[in-house]
Amino acid sequence: MTIVINMRDGLDWRKIRVSGRLILEGKLVAFPTETVYGLGADALNEEAVRRIFEAKGRPADNPLIVHIADFNDLKKLAREIPREARLLAERFWPGPLTLVLPKRDEVPLVTTGGLDTVAVRMPAHEIALALIRSSTPIAAPSANISGKPSPTLAEHVIDDFYGRIEAIIDGGETKVGVESTVIDLSSEKPTLLRPGGLPLEEIEKIIGPVEVHPAVRGKAVDLAKAPGMKYKHYSPNAQVVVVEGPRERVREKIRELIKEYRSKGYRVGVMATEEFEADEFFYLGKTLEEVAKNLFKALRELDKKNVDIIIAEGVEERGLGLAVMNRLRKASGYRIVRA
Ligand code: AMP
Ligand code: MG
Asked: What is the bridge-based pairing of β-strands 138-139 and 38-42?
């Protein structure tokens, strides 16, 4: 049985208390954050955290992010808090930034995918913060079946988990649309492990140059650091093809590909920042912010329309574009067409 808790009109403390109690009882509660919906459980309760992995079908070595509502909670989770962590937290929390730090023994290895580091963030969403305050630090990966596009609407969570978790809090559409930026501060040099809702440029303004893990731009590699990177991700049932290159040439190439695939009898969907004639079309918006916000919804909606192929327009890799391209390339299984 899943209860869907409507909070689209804003925070409701009575409903929050009910949801917080479920978390404290070891139950699974999906909730909105500013990035995407999370599938939450008590981060320090091994049994509860194990259920997240089961429900998602998530490999046990893909670590979860622990969500906190108060900077003091970080001290209960991380063994060391370096200067960079304080600076970044002060500037960007609550917000779409996750910090990887050496973990305390109290944090179960189930939560960290067996690593001796813990990933922590403070979400910028009043429902998420209230839920944490009414319970405990909450471990939460994106609330999608492993390998599927992340959820940006409660409907997406309902599609994936109705009947399989205790509660889903509906807080409407998420604002950012891509997951948090993950920075590893547990080793010598700050390293970007996953681009996300906070642009790397913003982070570098505060702590200087950040190394970019090779898996961020290129193909997935085998990693001990961020095992999450090696798994299939964000994939709808349709085959995604990403078209990259100078804008004009990309448009031309998309038109060519639509013709080519349709002549072979495929149903073709296109997601782009300007209109195309195809079997199905999803307008992503003009700015990189809009594209990020609409990205996962576009993949899910085109999939529902039973297209065989989704052609996605590539965007510039600056600001939120780095996160957008990282998600699109993974969604395509690295089927990239250069225009
Ligand atoms: P999700 O919330 O589903 O986007 O997954 C969380 C992601 O955060 C993982 O796939 C990793 O990329 C990253 N992450 C979480 N914990 C750690 C950690 N201890 N070390 C490195 N990366 C982490
Ligand atoms: Mg995820």
From this structure: antiparallel
Is the CB–ligand 1 distance for residue 62 below 6 Å? yes
Q: How far is the CA of 18 from the centre of ligand 1 (A)?
A: 28
For residue range 170-196, list pLDDT tens digits in order.
Answer: 999 999 999 999 999 998 899 999 999
What pLDDT, in 10s, does the model give residues 52-102? 999 999 999 999 999 999 999 999 999 999 999 999 999 999 999 999 999
In 3-state terms, what secondary structure has residue 330?
helix
Do 159 and 250 fall into the same domain? no
Structure confidence at residue 222 (pLDDT):
45
Give the pLDDT confidence of 16-47 residue by residue, as tens digits.
Answer: 999 999 999 999 999 999 999 999 999 999 99
Q: Answer yes or no: is the C-beta of 107 below 6 A from any ligand 1 atom.
A: no
Q: What is the pLDDT of residue 140?
A: 98
**DSSP string for 224-283:** SS-GGGGS--S--SSEEEEEESSHHHHHHHHHHHHHHHHHTT--EEEEESS---SSEEEE
Structural domain range at position 313: 239-338
Residue 117 in contact with ligand 1 by CB distance below 6 A:
yes
* Ligand 1 close to Cβ of residue 228 (< 6 A): yes
Looking at 186, 217, 248, the residue that finishes a domain is 217
Pair 185, 281 in one domain: no
Residue 103 Cα: closest atom of ligand 1 = 19
Instruction: Say how many Å lie between the CA of residue 82 and the centre of ligand 1.
Output: 19
pLDDT of residue 236: 76
